[in-house]
Amino acid sequence: MDVEVIMQYFVDYGPIAIFIIVLLEYLNLPGFPAGVIMPLAGIWAARGEMNFLFALLITVAAGVSGSVILYGLGRGGGEVFLKRYYKRFPKHEKLVEEKIGYLREKGGVGIFISKLVPMVRTLISIPAGIMKMNFGNYVISSTLGVAVWNFVFVGAGYLFGDAVFQMF
Q1: How far apart, in whole angstroms, are the C-alpha atoms of residue 95 and residue 56?
Q2: Burial tier of 49 (Cβ tally within 10 Å: 0-12, 13-18, 19+)
Q3: If we measure between CA atoms, which residue out of 168, 163, 100 comes closest to residue 128?
C-alpha cells in the first residue's frame, strides 16, 4: 500500500487508526504491520500533525492493551489450550515448557527482554498468563518492553522516515 494512502488514513481517522492497527498487531491479528505503522506515526509527528510523545503513548497504550488481552486469554484458558496443543503437536511440548520455565526463572526481566524480540514479543503474553504471573509485575515489565520497542520504531519514523520513504 502506498505511504501517502496510509498517511491519508491517519488524517481521516487520526490517532484512533494508529491505536487500532497497533492493537491488532500486538494481538497477532491481520492488519497493517506495526513495524510500518509506527514509523509512519513518527513521520506524522515530524510533519506536525501530532505531538511525538502523544504518538508514542498511543502506540504503547495499544501494545500494552493487546498484551493484557493475550495475558488474560492465557490465564483464563491457556492450560486447556496447551493440553490440546500438546496432543496435536507432542514434539512442541518440551520447547513450550522451556519458555514457561524461562519466565518462571526470569520473571519480569524475561517479559521485558521477550518484548524486544520479534515474533516472541507478542506471543510471550500467553505463557505469562498460563503460569499466572503476578499481573502488576507483568504489566510493568510488558509496558517497559513495549515502550522501548515502540520508541525505536516511532523515533525512527520521526528522525529518518520522510527521507527513507521518499527513496521508494
Answers
A1: 34
A2: middle
A3: 100
- Maximum CA extent, the chain: 53
Q: Which residue has 490465564 as its cell numbers?
A: 75
pLDDT at 162: 63
Say if residues 31 and 21 touch (Cβ distance below 8 Å).
Answer: yes
Mean pLDDT over 134-154 rounds to 96
Task: Confirm if 77 and 104 have CB atoms less than 8 A apart.
Answer: no
* Domain positions in the chain: 3-166
For the chain, give the mean pLDDT. 85
Contact 134, 48 (CB under 8 A): no
| The residue type at 5 | V
Quick one: pLDDT band at residue 3, thresholds 50, 70, 90? low
> What is the rounded CA–CA span in Å between residue 50 and residue 119?
29
Q: Are 133 and 103 in contact (CB under 8 A)?
A: yes
| Overall average pLDDT of the 5-23 stretch | 82
User: Packing angle between helix 15-26 and helix 52-88, nearest 10 degrees?
Assistant: 20
pLDDT of residue 165: 55
pTM for the model stands at: 0.83
CB neighbour list of residue 45: distance below 8 Å, 6 or more residues apart = 51, 52, 54, 55, 154, 157, 158
